[in-house]
TrEMBL record, chains A, B:
Its EC number is 3.5.1.4. This is amidase. InterPro entries: Amidase_CS (IPR020556), Amidase_dom (IPR023631), AS_sf (IPR036928). PANTHER family: ACETAMIDASE (PTHR46072:SF9), AMIDASE-RELATED-RELATED (PTHR46072). It catalyses: a monocarboxylic acid amide + H2O = a monocarboxylate + NH4(+). The keyword Hydrolase applies. The keyword Hydrolase applies. Substrate binds at L176, S202, I223, G224, G225, S226. Signal peptide: none annotated. Keywords: Hydrolase. One of its GO terms (molecular function) is amidase activity.
Length: 546, 546
């Protein structure tokens, strides 16, 4: 078989996993598909209500017996089936397995009259890096099709223990190292709010399915923006925890074993309370007893409470920047930052300019790390099937770079460490000047609102945070608006890339595209940073209250 | 100048740093020098008392004004001067700077009537990897002599903030990758209890000086036993914390930037209360705000309290092994393990056999990691001055091994991670069988009691724990005894190395040599593991009570 045959067969198998009764006919010409679920007639009004709920509400109703897992699971399976037909977002779809698992959980509840764990009966969608015994993890590589997993990833094991139900594994870009979601197996995944926009990547399938509410909490991974970009492009909350907070063991990955910058797992969801539900549920399972890279650090309520008490008196102190000095964001993103800053100030918080510290150095360093094996890992996987590389690939993995050697790597490690420490010093110095703690800073995630296809060019706003390994929480802010976000006239480019990116801004084409910011705290500050993000979302009116 | 000239000049400068009034004449022929301080007449009886105290007592008296830092510092400077003359343990000795620092602290106390921090006025000795502004850090390399440090290491900065006084930087083996302390600058450092025994290494100067009470708390580093071996050989407590607990930024190191197995800092001291004083004092300074590799994890009293409450009811559950399957320990070490096990059982604790999990694999893997650059880093540093390699060097850094490439390194990372996770699984399975938590395990540190010179051959008992990155606390147990520890007749060797090691056991030569065990907890379990070590030391009668 040619690689095309193998890919076509896999695609056909995914399509066949959708039962006929969940199939929709030919769609209209609307760019947005957000209203299809309500109009399709495939979901009952109860199922629409379930899929429009919060995860916190659902687990409460599942735990009290008000809802059955089979009903919740069926609702999400149906909506996910619509999502795949409309957005092309699934690499594995297995409603039968999911419903069987849900039935078992309902039986458990029936017998014990209590939930099995904090996620009892809740469907969770997974990026196609997570292994589930018996299923394929192609991760967008044709060469990996047909290899069936012999065990679960550790996070899958723990989510299962907590009561989660699995029903779908979502699409990724070939290699994972691109922030749009395209592969040679199923092609491109698109944004539910507008098919002409990217859903982001590499956890793009998660962004699309959760944005469409075919999923309530999705799990992605992030080594250079791959959780944050899809969250931002789909008006969702997202958490890139610091390395060592969430388990990654037994997952598939690109450049597996590369540890200079770690990929991390985290949730993509509709609110901070849902995010907290996910994180606390995983931590309750003591992941550090399964995955040596996880730090034995349970949820620290006392850290969250520090922020809560600052909200009650004194307020938060936050830094912000709207340009990293490399690429100036488009007008909607600048307005997004300004909206967050002015909203916070209006509510009595202190918001001060934050000077990005050598982000040009950081971006160069991390791009070198991504390419430190000269692309050997990725290109040998492509060669194994003969499939070609997807477009824009060279943005992150440049095969013309040579593999670096051991002593060069050690020098990179020292540069990374020194950079991290210097940035920490900047933070301390600013705090000393102010005479108070700076709780986090507010920054862009990408230079663009949900980007038009094939126009994602600059990863630096996200990837610098990966190099620092700081905690980042995505907060959705607003939508691009052609009436407010004019193209800059006579813009003087900082450099060629900046000029190209700015040139591509088109108020008409971006109109309505989601705009988000990231809230960045120091390493392993998930509790505080999530609490800050919650408050910002609340002030913006984009957050449910707990 | 030849390398010999440069080394001789440095050695002469160290010698010259000792004032005439602290010089001792020709010594007798005794193997042990432990009684010299009391007999020398150089220290007053008050100074003998000070240097024989615990650090906990000293900081209490310094904090209450009962002692002045100048007096405490002078006492330790004098005793350290004796130590260097007798044991050859210092690479930098700077009593004048120390006394000036002590005077400032006394003035601070006088003015504010309170200590500057929890270590106010306490002298701390440092391995010659720590940088102090204005001093040299040769680290045993001739090529590095004459380079004066422009800033302090982060741990020095934080200890200084906590009130510590610095007066000596102690000797190390050239390259640090050997567990005896020999370099081409000052030669060999010996054991204060018997000059024919090694003081251990690579933090051997710390072991010797603290063992001799020329230091009260010394700071070493450990990448394959370098804190634990000198602690064991000098009847001291030692902590190899997990990576990320103590700051390492801005220190000198061998193979700097190698991050597959991290070297870590930790204290070598006379008791667990002194160890806790050191660790809590450092953590109070929030090292994670200075060094990005440090985890934001303050001292967790609640973790210590879990052990305390087990001691009050139910007792501890501990595993133990006396052989890792690679090299059988000498009879004194086997008796040391047996002593700990039987003592614990007698006091109602549960002690069960622990099956070492693939330690042969672990030892091979970590040895490959030490040599992953084919010795480039170390040998180029030797070449820079022309000095030859010290003996036994090839045990850990084998220059005949080729440098590995990036994809091979990634494969090593995956093997390490899988090994760590499998060992965690073994731990979970044993706990499931038992139906209770296993708090830690007891294991040898080396196959020998304080080893005779040039006979240190096997690092595996220590280095396997480095590969796992588990917390290890050294507890001194007993002394080799020719009447109890007979040579095994007709021993059948497990392999060639095992045969050689066992053959070298000589009851007469080892008589009186310190015997220790390590207490090993999972990653980042310093509070619990120290509390367990404290109880074991207490039951053995080797531990002061707090």
């Amino acid at each position: 078989m040619t690689w095309e045959d193998i890919a076509a067969d896999k695609k056909a198998r995914i399509d066949k996993s959708i039962p006929d009764e969940w199939r929709i006919g030919v769609q209209g010409q609307d760019d947005s598909v957000m209203d299809v679920p309500a109009k399709s007639g495939i979901l009952s009004s109860e199922e629409i209500d379930i899929t429009n709920s919060s995860a916190v509400d659902l687990v409460a109703k599942l735990a009290s017996g008000q809802l059955k897992s089979v009903d919740v699971t069926l609702a999400f399976c149906k909506r996910a089936a619509l999502a795949h037909q409309l957005l092309n977002c699934a690499l594995e779809f297995f409603p039968e397995l999911a419903l069987a698992q849900a039935k078992e959980l309902d039986a458990y509840y029936e017998k014990n009259q209590k939930p099995i764990g904090p996620l009892h009966g809740l469907p969770i969608s997974l990026k196609d890096q997570f292994r589930i015994k018996g299923l394929e993890t192609s991760m967008g590589y044709v060469a990996w099709i047909g290899k069936y997993d012999e065990e679960d990833s550790i996070l899958v094991t723990l989510l299962r223990k907590a009561g989660a139900v699995f029903y779908v594994k979502t699409s990724v870009p070939q290699s994972l190292m691109v922030c749009e979601t395209v592969n040679n197996i199923i092609g491109r995944t698109v944004n539910p709010r507008n098919k002409n926009w990217s859903c982001g990547g590499s956890s793009g399938g998660e962004g699309a399915i959760v944005g469409f509410r075919g999923g309530i909490i999705g799990v992605g991974t992030d080594i250079g923006g791959s959780i944050r970009v899809p969250s931002a492009f789909n008006f969702l909350y997202g958490l890139r925890p610091s390395h060592g907070r969430m388990p990654y063991a037994k997952m598939a990955n690109s450049m597996e074993g590369q540890e200079t910058v770690h990929s991390v797992c985290g949730p993509i969801c509709h609110s901070i309370p849902d995010m907290k539900l996910f994180v606390t549920s995983v931590l309750k399972e003591e992941p550090w007893k399964y995955d040596s890279k996880v730090i034995p650090m349970p949820w620290r309520q006392s850290e969250e409470d520090i922020i809560t008490s600052k909200l009650k008196s004194g307020g938060l102190t936050l830094g912000f920047y709207d340009c990293d000095g490399n690429v100036t964001p488009h007008p909607p993103i600048l307005r997004g930052i300004e909206t967050v800053v002015s909203t916070l100030k209006k509510h009595g918080h202190t918001v001060i300019p934050w000077k990005p510290y050598k982000h040009d150095f950081a971006v160069n360093l991390i791009n070198g790390i991504y390419a430190s094996d000269g692309g050997t890992d990725v290109f040998s996987t492509l060669a194994a099937s003969g499939e070609p590389a997807i477009p824009n690939f060279k943005d992150l993995i440049n095969p013309s770079l040579p593999k670096i050697d051991m002593n060069e790597l050690w020098s990179v490690h020292l540069q990374k460490w020194a950079y991290q420490n210097s940035y920490l010093e900047q933070w301390r110095l600013r705090e000393a000047e102010l005479g108070r703690e700076i709780d986090a800073f507010i920054a862009p995630i990408t230079p663009t609102a949900a980007v038009r296809h094939n126009q994602f060019k600059y990863y630096g706003y996200a990837s610098t945070i990966n190099l620092l390994d700081w905690t980042s929480v995505v907060v959705p802010v607003t939508f691009a608006d052609k009436a407010l976000d004019m193209k800059k006239e006579g813009y003087e480019a900082l450099n060629e890339l900046d000029g190209t990116v700015q040139e591509e801004y088109d108020p008409e084409a971006y109109h309505g595209a989601p705009v988000a910011v990231q809230i960045v705290g120091r390493r392993l500050t998930e509790e505080r940073t999530m609490a800050i993000a919650h408050e910002i979302g609340r002030l913006l009116g984009n957050e449910i209250t707990p």
